[in-house]
Amino acid sequence: MRIGVIGTGNMGSLLVGALIRSRAVKPKFISVMNRTKEKALILKRKYHHLSVLTSPNEVLQHSDLVFICVKPDQFFPLLDSLRGAWHPSQVAISITSPISVRQLEQLIPCQVARVIPSIVNQSLAGSTLVTFGTEITDIQKSKLWALLSHFSHPIEIDEETIRAASDLASCGPAFLTFLLRKMIDGAVSTTPITQAQATQLTTEMISGLGKLLADGTYTLGELQKKVTVKGGITGIGIEVLEQENHDTFQKLFTETQKKFEEDRKQIDTAFNHGEH
Prior knowledge:
Helix content: 55-70%
Radius of gyration: 21 Å
Number of helices: 12
CATH architecture of the largest domain: 3-Layer(aba) Sandwich
CATH topology of the largest domain: Rossmann fold
CATH superfamily of the largest domain: NAD(P)-binding Rossmann-like Domain
Order of helices and strands: EHEHEHEHEHEEHEHHHHHH
Number of strands: 8
């Protein structure tokens, strides 16, 4: 399968790296382009045999499956410029969560899907969130699923839950990193431990925790119970967290959902304007 990637920013580069490192696709079968060509050339220097092309039209000419990895404000102008360039047998994949699959199908005259990656896919782990278009064939579904399975655990997600799923799978690493940094800062500011020691211990702890969960050794609930001794120090710490953060994540999901709806309204306006 020939893969095209339009946009080689953070997510586009992540996908290219994951595809190659997982051996899902050889570099010679991948074509990329970016508005700022130097970003694409950085990937070329890393993966010598991939092709750097000069326009989105060229990418379509050389690809069976095309990942569209551009910002929402670039999305509609890009697709407008490509209206007559698609082939019905191609599969177009957006990684932009606020743009619905229904909108993709109205803008792109071929089979479509949406795939939301995560930064943890760089380690050939974590989930990718998949929403299929209504016209995509079972054969193409299977091909895409197999491709994503090389570097992730693909999970099919509907429009109603895409924001919450993205918050957990894609934004989650940033949220947890923020909390871990706060934990390190708390230890450094209140005890003699150094920043370097606290960072090393926390990093190694979270790495080991991930392995325990990945191996199925414990569930999240079981792990907390194993570490927490009644009347012990861990229990005291949990009590503080419960008091101080009892509704933190409810607020977080409320605010991210609100921002998501704002983004969708802007996209709907742009979409309706483009249709007229």
